[in-house]
Amino acid sequence: MSTPADNDVSLIDARPVAAAVDTPAALADTASASAAAPSNEVATGSAPASNTAPASNTAPAPGNSPQRAYFDHAATTPLRPEVLEAMQPFLLGHFGNANSLHREGKEARQALEQARETIANLIGAVPSEVVFTSGGTESNNTLINGLLRGLRDSRGKSRDDTHVLASAFEHHAVLEPVRRLKRQGYQISLLKPRRDGFIHPDDFVNALRPETALASVMTANNEVGTIQPVEELARLCRQHDVLFHTDAVQALGKIPFRVNQLGIDAASFSAHKIGGPKGVGAFYLRRRTPFAASLLGGGQEGGRRSGTQDVAGAVGLARALELADAERKDNFARLIRLRNHLICGLTELSGRIRLTVPIDVRDLESDALLPGFIPLLVQGLESETMILKLDNAGFAVSGGSACTTGSLEPSHVLLALGLSKDDAYTALRISMGPENTEQQADAFIAAMGRILKPAPVEQGIRQRDYPNQDATLSK
Ligand SMILES: Cc1ncc(COP(=O)(O)O)c(C=O)c1O
């Protein structure tokens, strides 16, 4: 355990990883880029059965027409028709307030509690541990503030005697509340992941202090897709009497996530990453965990989140999770195949394309990276240029996280990983979903081939036309 050096938000360096940050030269047994479709439209012809989207998704999903391939599922996903169907009765006929005593209220209450029970069963919790919110951002803010306030109330510790540890590549919905805690007088430190994209348990335990009260490490990173050793980190927290929160927004429904097995105290979820509605989320809070609510009012959700509940939203989240869980195994295998096919094609296409994190090809079948997730660096091409060119070619992809789009700052995630600013400006995030196909992947490789064709010196990184431009961009 370290001792407090000062009261600053100290950035803790992780130990460097030995592994080189090179894309593996060849990926196992997947087709090469030469199979790429020649057209600049997204191909949709017939495909081998194993690589077509599942039957329930054969109708083109919104944003996934013959002219478009939506490869940005980490930003958001289309609402699934089955989810809309489940929600509809509570948007129209069954409009009651779940807190009213009459029949309309009881109908709404029954649906709300059924949704809570479904979610609890699927994450290994009991229903009273599930609280509905307006999304991942609210869940993160409420938990971080609420756990600390709860601890202060129950243990009577002062702010300057309380330390909070978070990873340095958390989503802003964790980092910003943590930064505010610093301004309020708490001790804060942000632990950098290693260059491989992971928070390593020995770095983590070294960053704990005698006065650490709360630690927060995301289950899966939203920019590079690496899945963190949450079970081990939670175990270390228990040993040191530290509460452990995880932002599971990118992980829920995509990888096995059981709170009882992970041994965590709190977790944040969002519906729109798994085919549910936007503006709907939930958090898990272990029974008897110290907590003080942020939203005060009518005392709904057991006093942990006041406000009339969005019954249709809760029903939508439960249905989306139910579907994601039922299809997870099949989707996992398909998306890993698709991911490997795309990585293979892209890296064979050009030596300028490499994976952002040094995931070894042998690990691609493993649980190191979210399925369907491909974090890339494309040497000599700015993210914005690539995103716009790919958009014109029919593909929706992202550079960094969509929530920070518009910011000219390089991604804090990539900088925390130790990338240079120049490299961080060349990041591309491809995140595929169940409806994506191998034909789309091939068409994407072909489109990248066309985009990369001009020599790097002709097309290379230009000075941006923005104020506050970073001089390091001009080459
Ligand atoms: C890891 C992570 N946490 C939190 C959020 C915020 O979730 P929401 O959009 O539901 O507020 C996101 C959204 O991108 C995310 O990726």
Largest sheet, spatial ordering of strands: 1-5-4-6-7-8-9-3
Question: Care to count the β-strands?
Answer: 13
In the residues, how many domains can be counted? 2
CATH class of the largest domain: Alpha Beta
| Helix and strand run | EEHHEHEHEHEHEHEEHEEHEHHEHH
What is the fold named in CATH at topology level of the largest domain?
Answer: Aspartate Aminotransferase, domain 2
Provide the β-strand percentage band.
Answer: 5-15%
Q: List each distinct ligand once.
A: pyridoxal-5'-phosphate
Count of helical stretches: 13
Low-confidence stretches: 1-8, 16-58, 458-475
Assign the CATH architecture of the largest domain: 3-Layer(aba) Sandwich
Blueprint (SSEs and pairs):
Layout: E1 10-12, E2 69-70, H1 81-91, H2 103-123, E3 130-133, H3 136-155, E4 163-167, H4 172-183, E5 187-191, H5 201-207, E6 212-216, H6 230-239, E7 243-247, H7 259-262, E8 266-270, E9 281-285, H8 311-349, E10 353-355, E11 373-378, H9 383-392, E12 395-396, H10 412-416, H11 421-424, E13 427-431, H12 438-452, H13 456-459
Helix pairs in contact: 1-8, 2-8, 3-4, 8-12
Bound molecules: pyridoxal-5'-phosphate (PLP).
